Amino acid sequence: MSGEGKVVCVTGASGYIASWIVKFLLQRGYTVRATVRDPSDPKKVDHLIKLDGAKERLQLFKADLLEQGSFDSIVEGCDGVFHTASPVRFVIDDPQAELIDPAVKGTLNVLKSCAKSPSVKRVVLTSSTSAVAFNTRPKNPGVIVDETWFSDPDFCRESQVSIVFPIQNESLKLVKLGYAILMWFT
Ligand SMILES: NC(=O)c1ccc[n+]([C@@H]2O[C@H](COP(=O)([O-])OP(=O)(O)OC[C@H]3O[C@@H](n4cnc5c(N)ncnc54)[C@H](OP(=O)(O)O)[C@@H]3O)[C@@H](O)[C@H]2O)c1
């Protein structure tokens, strides 16, 4: 599929998954608006700048998940948005502040920006097996874990493997897990 003439935003572009998304989008001819927290940090952006097509079609923007409206102008005019930015850490002192707030508030922040931009036709969020891994149901051989297996918030809190809580409003349900985020529209 050719992305020629199309503009796509990738959040957290310096990250592992996002960097691959940026590479594939550039290969397919898309113009990519890549968000990073510090575009002046070579460790974060050098590998992106060196990608084929980057010189012509990669644009770097500074954005932070916890800054309200940070993504508004970046997303405006985009055809699609890949939202991958999220803290990914396995050793953490304060899960609420270091993990959950940036992930949940950040995702809502990005989605609000998308909702404001009529050009955005599709939003892709990265989830994780963590979204369905932590509950009391037995995972015997042959069991298929799918979207009916959402992790159980109480189990996660008690076992401290992950933290889960639901946010709901009229248009969306969001389940945040300690190490992942899963979202689906109703
Ligand atoms: N890698 C996997 O195998 C895997 C598996 C399942 C799910 N996932 C999910 O996929 C997503 C990306 O994972 P990844 O492995 O690519 O992670 P990663 O390499 O750590 O990338 C995460 C990106 O999020 C950005 N970020 C963190 N906090 C931010 C903030 N406050 N504001 C703006 N950006 C922020 C980081 O930007 P900076 O560079 O500026 O810090 C980083 O570039 C995560 O949601 C993760 O849970 C990944």
From TrEMBL:
The keyword Oxidoreductase applies. Residues 8-133 form the NAD-dependent epimerase/dehydratase domain. GO terms for molecular function: oxidoreductase activity, acting on the CH-OH group of donors, NAD or NADP as acceptor. Keywords: NADP, Oxidoreductase. The keyword Zinc-finger does not apply. It comes from the Eukaryota. Pfam families: Epimerase. InterPro entries: Epimerase_deHydtase, NAD(P)-bd_dom_sf, NAD(P)_dehydrat-like. Belongs to the NAD(P)-dependent epimerase/dehydratase family. Dihydroflavonol-4-reductase subfamily. This is NAD-dependent epimerase/dehydratase domain-containing protein. It comes from Pisum sativum (Garden pea). The lineage of its organism: Eukaryota, Viridiplantae, Streptophyta, Embryophyta, Tracheophyta.
